[in-house]
Amino acid sequence: IATVDTNGLVTGITQGTVTITATTNEGSFTDYTTVTIIFDGSVDDSDNDFEIDFKIYPNPTNSSNNIYITGLNEDSYTVMLFDIIGKLINKENIKFKNKIGEFNIKNLKTGIYIITVGNLNSLYSTKLIVK
């Protein structure tokens, strides 16, 4: 449903409610908060004069190979793979070459996953189907 980075930034992945637990390093204090992620389905991109052709292939795929991510600038991106309920399955930092990044999906079970690709300037998500 959401991820929390080392700086405490919460990023919504899918709709739902999640309880986030924070504990001090020495374990002397723990606190909880509940976060609800709601997507209203609307996006206002009227200020953007560019179009990104972000794609992953093959999709659908099987779990015995890699997938390729295309359409992004040559840069380093963090790629995160979540199962359908929002649990982080894999996270890798990938350097894109010739606008293509390669991500290992070996040993994934059949199902639907969410791939999120991002850096400091942008964040993209799409569905991945593993047969």
UniProtKB/TrEMBL annotation:
The keyword tRNA-binding does not apply. Residues 56-130 form the Secretion system C-terminal sorting domain. Keywords: Signal. Residues 1-35 form the BIG2 domain. SUPFAM superfamilies: Invasin/intimin cell-adhesion fragments (SSF49373). NCBIfam families: Por_Secre_tail. This is Por secretion system C-terminal sorting domain-containing protein. It comes from Flaviramulus basaltis. The lineage of its organism: Bacteria, Pseudomonadati, Bacteroidota, Flavobacteriia, Flavobacteriales.
